[in-house]
Amino acid sequence: xxxxxxxxxxPSTWGPLGGxxxxxxxxxxxxxxxxxxxxxxxxxxxxSFRDSDGDGEGDLDGIRAGLDHLQDLxxxxxxxxxxxxxxxxxxxxDVSDYCSIDPRYGSLEDAVALxxxxxxxxxxxxxxxxxxxxxxxxxxxxxxxxxPEGSPERERFVFRDGRGPDGNEPPNNWISAFGGPAWERTxxxxxxxxxxxxxxxxxxxxxxxxxxxxxRTDFDGILRFWFDRGVDGIRVDAxxxxxxxxxxxxxxxxxxxxxxxxxxxxxPHWDVDDVHDIFKRWRRVAEEYDGDRVLVxxxxxxxxxxxxxxxxxxxIHTAFNFEFLKVPWDVGLRRVIDETRETLAxxxxxxxxxLGSHDELRLTTRYGRVDSSSEVGVSPDIPSxxxxxxxxxxxxxxxxxxxxxxxxxxxxxxxxxxxVDDIPEDRLQDPIWExxxxxLRGRDACRVPLPxxxxxxxxxxxxxxxxxxxxxxxxxxxGALTVEAQAxxxxxxxxxxxxxxxxxxxxxAFRTDDFAWRESPAEVLDFQRGPHLRCVVxxxxxxxxxxxxxxxxxxxxxxxxxxxxxxxxxxxxxxTS
Length: 577
Ligand code: NOJ
Fold this sequence. Notes:
Blueprint: E1 40-44, H1 46-49, H2 60-65, H3 67-73, E2 77-80, H4 108-120, E3 124-129, H5 139-146, H6 152-155, E4 159-160, E5 183-187, E6 193-198, H7 213-228, E7 233-236, H8 275-286, E8 294-297, H9 304-310, E9 318-319, H10 322-326, H11 332-344, E10 352-354, H12 363-367, H13 386-402, E11 406-410, H14 431-435, H15 483-487, H16 493-506, E12 516-517, E13 524-528, E14 534-538, E15 544-545, E16 550-555, E17 563-564, E18 568-574
Parallel strand pairs: 1-2, 1-11, 2-3, 3-7, 7-8, 8-9, 10-11
Antiparallel strand pairs: 4-6, 5-6, 12-13, 13-14, 14-18, 15-17, 16-18
Helix pairs in contact: 7-8, 13-16
Bound molecules: 1-deoxynojirimycin (NOJ).
């Protein structure tokens, strides 16, 4: 990487009036600009971030111990994946108590201390709210199972009689996201077969009934509980699943029994229009608080237009951009950037760029493949050129971080970690493995604990000497990928991220919505953010010559003169002399 010292940039002298200027020449709108519009958010998967007590699983004190790294990296906020008590049937997305912390992670006091410490460092915290479903041992569900059919307790969930003479068939044909039917039959206290309950995800995740006013009111209280403790935002898990078409009619899957949430139109259990009432209500709760508390939707839906509905001005503030996350490393990136911007403009929402998460193949592995489109699950049989993947990860970081809007970095992507696709089968934890009849390995490959220092597992994830392997085994050979090793290496993937984030904070262009493509060949992405910042990404497979009128602020690979090699990116600023 090459980089000019940001100190030389002197942002305050950029505009003739001493302030930043928009592309049209006008001064930047100084009206209130919520923090999240331009924030870089770092996803913490708590079980795999850092283990402070040596039990092989991450915890809240581990996150506190990692704040130095996150502050050095320069992120604005954390999104912490579910930290509530959970049987971990789906990695914490099965919640037993929404107002408490899983003992493996710590206590409520630890959470409050973490919030305070993060805030003291200028880092905000978004938590994950899993409100489409609970865990099997949530008191609401155990009460529902113990209560008779038609009782108020059962009304909190979606219980129905089965079809067929003995009720042996599920109530309808709906399928679950993790494979198989979306219904599970209960057993009555006397041992006879009982009603069925709906689970959009695993059977251990019974769906709540969001037409029930008690459910709605209770979640208003749960949101306030966390806002009162200082959380800055809520990620809304599985937002399109909350509402189901009344009467629960059969779905028309057209013979394709795969969960195609990104393609379904008119599906009775996904993206049903009435879902929006719920999030308008959540927005009103968020607005009871100062500090621009933010709602972030996880909403995989059939089209940008459907997504925009979640982002109406009185609803959810931002939503992950799954198109960007799934598109291959090729010219399709330009199309996705354009479509995103066109879709969001009418509702005035900001874009949210994401390249990885705890649900996806690691970016380094994906970008090293011949077909670099995303797919859930891992196949050890698909080869990946990790050197090429790493190169592209660095370029992609400069691309993503140069785009207007919010950017999300999944833990470990700043280190360029690859997927671990050879976890022994008896160590796999993701329910997808069991539910797919051992045909899909699931998402554990991207959840392997982070390497912090050292040359062998657990690489400082757990205290030295405490354990030999964490809850998901780490591979040999990660010594050069640790935080410590990369922090000391001026050409590392971590270093590119740090400098890019540093520049992003320094340069006023990043606090505007300015964006304009420059003329370029299709395989070269070239855009400006106002007059003083330009990003060039070379997807052509060949070296390209950089514009001599512009100086390089940062590049994803070392530059040899004004030449940008293949699969590389650079940020430029106009030459002044
Ligand atoms: C989306 C989460 O990211 C994923 O990990 C989880 O399995 C499902 N929602 C169900 O809660």
